[in-house]
């Protein structure tokens, strides 16, 4: 708390600390690991509510996979904007990116996600 200068919102300061620590951890591990589960053997005998839960989990896994295909900076900006619901200005303060760069990363990331999801959907139909 001694280092907080009060020049920006406290939440932005906390996010910046979190971001720096996350980047340190990522550099140490050098990759993200997502777990995937195979539920195919359970689908034939499972009751409908379990199937719904499995479908939701499968969708969640698909989204995680698609997000893992983004660069870490793109994934971070997407997460801060959509999951944390931060403004462009708050994201620029956390990431030290320019406002234009944040907007470009969001636009390109959405475009990549659409493309990857459509490819994945096409592959499942085939």
TrEMBL record:
InterPro entries in the record: RNA_pol_sigma-70-like, RNA_pol_sigma-70_dom, RNA_pol_sigma70_r4_t2, RNA_pol_sigma_r3/r4-like, WH-like_DNA-bd_sf
Ranges in a coiled coil: none
UniProt GO BP: DNA-templated transcription initiation
UniProt KW keywords: DNA-binding, Sigma factor, Transcription, Transcription regulation
Residues of the RNA polymerase sigma factor 70 region 4 type domain: 66-113
Pfam families, alphabetized: Sigma70_r4_2 (PF08281)
Gene3D superfamilies reported in the protein's UniProt record: Winged helix-like DNA-binding domain superfamily/Winged helix DNA-binding domain
GO function term, MF aspect, one: sigma factor activity
NCBIfam families: sigma70-ECF
Record's protein name: Protein containing RNA polymerase sigma-70 domain
